[in-house]
Amino acid sequence: MKKIEAIIKPHALDAVKEALNGIGITGMTISEVKGYGRQKGHTEVYRGAEYVVDFIPKIKLELVVADDNAERVADGIRQAANTGRIGDGKIFILPVDDVIRIRTGERGTSAV
Question: pLDDT grade, residue 94 (50/70/90)?
Fold first, then answer.
């Protein structure tokens, strides 16, 4: 199994969700996060004063999939979230040793 973590722009969430539903992925966890990479923040003007916003709002998407689905899921996220501009995000693919469903005690891919 693989855990896929994706950091995307907030406006891309609906497109990513639709793309994942289209390939049969029905469960995911999202979090509202802030950060920056090469984008390095931006400046804004508030009541006439200019200030730097260092951390940009992003969405962190987390899901666990079977090994054979990981590449297809990552590619679906990449295509749906891609605008071609800086700050589109990152996708991380990590190994998962085991999963346990709390309610039933199922383990492994059947618990996903």
Answer: very high
